[in-house]
Amino acid sequence: MRHIISLLMENEAGALSRVAGLFSARGYNIESLTVAPTEDPTMSRMTIVTSGSDDVIEQINKQLNKLVDVVTVMDLTDGDHIERELMLVKVRATGNDREELKRMTDIFRGRVIDVSDKTYTIELTGTEHKLDRFLQAIDHTLILETVRTGASGIGRGDRILKL
Amino acid sequence: MELTGAEITIRCLQEEGVEYVFGYPGGAVLFIYDELFKQEQVKHVLVRHEQAAVHAADGYARSTDKVGVALVTSGPGVTNAVTGIATAYLDSIPLVVISGQVPTSYIGEDAFQEVDAVGITRPCVKHNFLVKDAKDIAATLKKAFYLAKSGRPGPVLVDIPKDVSNQKAEYSYPATVSIRSYNPQVQGDIGQIKRAAQLQLTELVRLLGAPCTNTLMGLGGFPASDQQFVGMLGMHGTYEANMGMQNCDVLLAVGARFDDRVIGNVAHFNSVPRKIIHIDIDPASISKRVKVDVSIVGDVANVVSDLLSVLNSSKQKPDAAALKDWWKQIAEWRSANSLSYKNSSELIKPQYVIETLHKITGGDAFVTSDVGQHQMWAAQYYKFNQPRRWINSGGLGTMGFGLPAAMGVQLAHPGATVACVTGEGSIQMNIQELSTCKQYRLPIKVIALNNRYLGMVRQWQEFFHGNRYSQSYMDALPDFVKLAEAYGHVGILVEKPSDVEGALKEAFARKDDLVFLDFRTDSTENVYPMVPGGKGLSEVILAEDL
Ligand SMILES: Cc1cc2nc3c(=O)[nH]c(=O)nc-3n(C[C@H](O)[C@H](O)[C@H](O)COP(=O)(O)OP(=O)(O)OC[C@H]3O[C@@H](n4cnc5c(N)ncnc54)[C@H](O)[C@@H]3O)c2cc1C
Ligand SMILES: Cc1ncc(C[n+]2csc(CCOP(=O)(O)OP(=O)(O)O)c2C)c(N)n1
Ligand SMILES: [Mg+2]
């Protein structure tokens, strides 16, 4: 099953490679991984999307907790949470396609953030699923490049990941 | 007080009460060696290979419960140390390994003798550090010692660039340490805790009245001479231990990680309806390979003492009738006599050598071993009654571990009897340490069970590869007696069963000498019982099956 795990870790050189190394050494899947410093600059927050059986997910959580640089771990999938991912898509936008692409972007509540005479760059935020649907909805032969951040996640309401 | 990084490093070792540093010098650690030279409190043991430095620190730690310390130079010094670090990691041994690094401004330039020490060791350390400023050395070493010995112990590497060891900084040794992300269950004197735990464990087993088995790593944790002890379990465990594991109603596992060599095939192990209670300090060890019914995360010492007080005050007592039936069943399995072997008057049987070793040393020696058949025979036939006496590489199974580990043990316990049980294959992986033994006058007794084969490999080839002995015959062996003599030691060749006891007596009577005993043993002997890889604990090959 797909799980989204959030963690706080020391904002130190090497911390990221400890997490990435753990996943490769133990053969766990990483679907996506995002990381950036938090409001407390000594700490980074990471979101990992992974998948595996319940036993594997339990081990992933325990092994992450064992890493000395990892301060605290929360499996967001265990409760109510929100996920968002950012995608930038550059598309060939000429002739009639310009209008159609703009329309689709509006329907998906995206924005065109860069325009040239032949291209649009579209910014879209949402769940992984929504971004996938957008890519399916437009004519895929027009896609020049896509870049996605991978999911970031946060608990709903009182579910807070703090030290 | 302003000191150089190298001075700070040595001060920290002094503060930690480090008695011995096992190491090998080189360019990147010259400032540190210079400071070692200027003081006497921390003694340095010059090994002949960095792998041996780490194994020696490891043997020191295993036999004392103190943190072992090794010091190596950058590049090849670190890469040579990696096998030792991984060996300690898999068996959860507390070590601090200090490595030199190229100067900070050279890092990343493929400088002379540069390797990414932190990167190379990351998967086989509990934690590691690269120190980029001399002002951070003290706090880092404090953390390193704390991490190594608290919670589930393990090796910690501290990488110090050469310029940092020569840089001046304000020094004070931190009195306390805290790491916000790290909250170990145990702190304090692990040695004392573990000794207390062994006594309590024995009390618990008596109270429960149930049979008790030990893993290879646990031998000595419960006295082997006790009636309730059924021997080691696992791949080469006794029939009664393995059948007991498979058929019991309730299994209480105390600090054991259900390794594949312990439980065999997982599905087969799980195919019976027993209940499992698992005590472990590391939550990640629980339900990693085998789902357990009750898990207790904590230090064995605390948990067992709590268990004892609950049980002692409880009105419920073990069901005497059920226990009687169970012991009757155990006795039946025991009567298979799975460790029996046919002694011979022509060929030296390895089992006989170990039994005689046990007799001559009164069962009271520190025994280190290498890896292979000889290791299993030592585990099976030397009946350990105390913890920390049996020193071997279980998790990584590192050939070459035995002799350097014995050096660490002997230094930690001057005057104690230390035997290294080895094979003619394994001993050659760190034979150069005979030179270190000479330099520091370590009177280790090397018990080489020389079967002229990589015996454990040969055994698998005999059982599972149609007797095709691909590369398992050790040809062109050295004359070990002459070799021992060349290093300045005593060598004794033993070729007849009738000479075994006399030779062992003579060797152990030489209290001040390292004696290398070259026992020419039966080269076709196999280790029994054996649960083949991937099979269940009851699917065992016994000696008489063949
Ligand atoms: C050739 C060869 C053959 C082998 N054959 C066998 C065999 O037949 N039988 C066998 O048993 N092994 C055998 N082994 C060894 C095997 O590979 C494992 O190393 C061993 O079984 C592991 O034992 P363990 O789980 O007791 O110890 P460890 O691997 O040391 O694990 C200890 C566990 O206890 C926990 N722990 C540590 N300290 C505490 C504490 N203070 N409180 C609570 N929990 C704690 C740790 O978290 C860990 O989970 C063999 C090895 C080799 C090389
Ligand atoms: C460094 C290393 N290389 C290879 C092995 C695989 N291996 C396990 S036992 C063994 C044979 C050991 O031979 P020897 O030391 O003569 O012991 P014996 O089995 O004959 O008693 C080998 C090669 C290992 N455990 N360690
Ligand atoms: Mg051999």
CATH top level of the largest domain in chain A?
Alpha Beta
Tally of individual helices of chain B:
20
The share of residues in extended strands of chain A comes to: 35-45%
* Low-pLDDT regions of chain A: none
The CATH superfamily of the largest domain in chain B is known as Thiamin diphosphate (ThDP)-binding fold, Pyr/PP domains
Structural class of chain B: alpha/beta
From the 3D structure, determine the CATH topology of the largest domain in chain B: Rossmann fold
Main sheet: strands, sense, barrel of chain B: 6 strands, parallel
The largest beta-sheet of chain B arranges its strands as 3-2-4-5-7-6
Radius of gyration of chain A, CA atoms, in whole angstroms: 18 Å
Q: Biggest sheet of chain A: strands, sense, closure? A: 5 strands, antiparallel
C-alpha end-to-end distance of chain B: 72 Å
Please name the CATH topology of the largest domain in chain A.
Alpha-Beta Plaits
Q: How are the SSEs ordered, and which strands pair?
A:
The complex is a heterodimer of chains A (163) and B (546).
Chain A: E1 2-10, H1 15-25, E2 32-37, E3 43-51, H2 54-66, E4 70-75, E5 81-92, H3 96-107, E6 111-115, E7 119-126, H4 128-137, E8 143-148, E9 152-155
Antiparallel strand pairs in A: 1-3, 1-4, 2-3, 5-7, 5-8, 5-9, 6-7
Chain B: E1 2-4, H1 5-15, E2 20-23, H2 30-37, E3 43-46, H3 50-64, E4 68-72, H4 76-90, E5 95-101, H5 117-121, E6 127-130, H6 137-149, E7 155-161, H7 162-165, E8 168-170, H8 190-208, E9 212-214, E10 229-232, H9 239-247, E11 250-254, H10 260-263, H11 266-270, E12 275-280, E13 294-297, H12 300-313, H13 320-334, H14 350-360, E14 366-369, H15 373-381, E15 390-391, H16 402-412, E16 418-423, H17 433-439, E17 445-450, H18 455-464, H19 480-486, E18 490-494, H20 500-509, E19 515-520
Parallel strand pairs in B: 2-3, 2-4, 4-5, 5-7, 6-7, 9-10, 11-12, 12-13, 14-15, 14-16, 16-17, 17-19, 18-19
Antiparallel strand pairs in B: 1-8
Bound molecules: flavin-adenine dinucleotide, thiamine diphosphate and magnesium ion.
